[in-house]
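A quick aside before the break. I want you to see a complete sequence-to-structure record at least once, exactly as it would be stored in a machine-readable document. Don't worry about memorizing anything.
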Amino acid sequence: MPGLLLDTLNGKASERVPLWLMRQAGRYLPEYRELRAQKGGFLELAYDSEAAAEVTLQPIRRFGFDGAILFSDILVIPHAMGQDLWFEAGEGPRLAPKLLDGALEGLSGAFQRLDPVYETVRRCRAALGPETTMLGFAGSPWTVATYMVAGQGSKDHAETRALAYRDPEAFGVLINAIESATIDYLIGQIDAGVEAVQLFDSWAGSLAPDEFERWVIAPNARITAALHEARPGTPVIGFPKGSGAKLPAYARETGVDAVGVDETIDPEWAARELPAGLPVQGNLDPLLLLAGGERLVERTRFILRAFAGRPHVFNLGHGIGQFTPIDHVETLVATVRGWQG
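That is the input. The structure line, written in tokens, reads:
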């Protein structure tokens, strides 16, 4: 029997609201920090299937979340496409060479780099009970492209946005290549045991409306359609962070099975404006989880009330912060579990 989370993503309403948290497997957990210290760098940990599976399972053991999210990174796709990938301590990921002109000619694909990720999924699915949904993920093409073009993260993604304006044909070739690799990657995850997937478009909010249509909605629609055709019955969660008023159009036009809502969105507005019956996921501010206190409980209950009229997966508006106290997460879990809608 499918778990509560998978049922909810398939559009089934329930008295109990399923719960998982973006970045739930990570630095706020002491058991993660201990394992990370043993294994070394982040990338070494992510590509070690035994260790990555252990990290994926840690928050399930501690909190009993309804979903286990694969421990990996969105930048394994450019790494598999042939860019060098490493993580600078305290500064984040780096990719080389930079694709400032969008050209892929100098890259040589190394898609075997993804094999350990599939093995991580197999190990996790074998260790999880049927009540816990195994979640896979990938970065959406626009967000992945911002890193591939600039070689690192940036505040306004100016180099990538400028390339898309200056040479949309060349940029479109890059987007299409990421799209194709992402489809294959997610199918590989599904075949290894993933039951639902999330498309992270963390930097969707940096685009003007027409560019959002071209570089966010259209590629995500093609990925979703390809997954629905290749692996029917596997829900796709779309998460276009920062999309604001463009969120209903994204939900309608991409064909995703559920939509993630970030913390800047009023949940009452989202409940009213999103397509009727579409499952929603979100949307507690991660900084409120960090702060804790009575405001955390009040806001959690407000979100639960706002989305009570449709299938709802409780989550954060983005990833959990590394300094979030464990007892605040325990309070959140108790509040959601104790909710009587």
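Two observations worth writing down. The radius of gyration is 19 Å. The mean pLDDT is 96. We'll return to this after the break.
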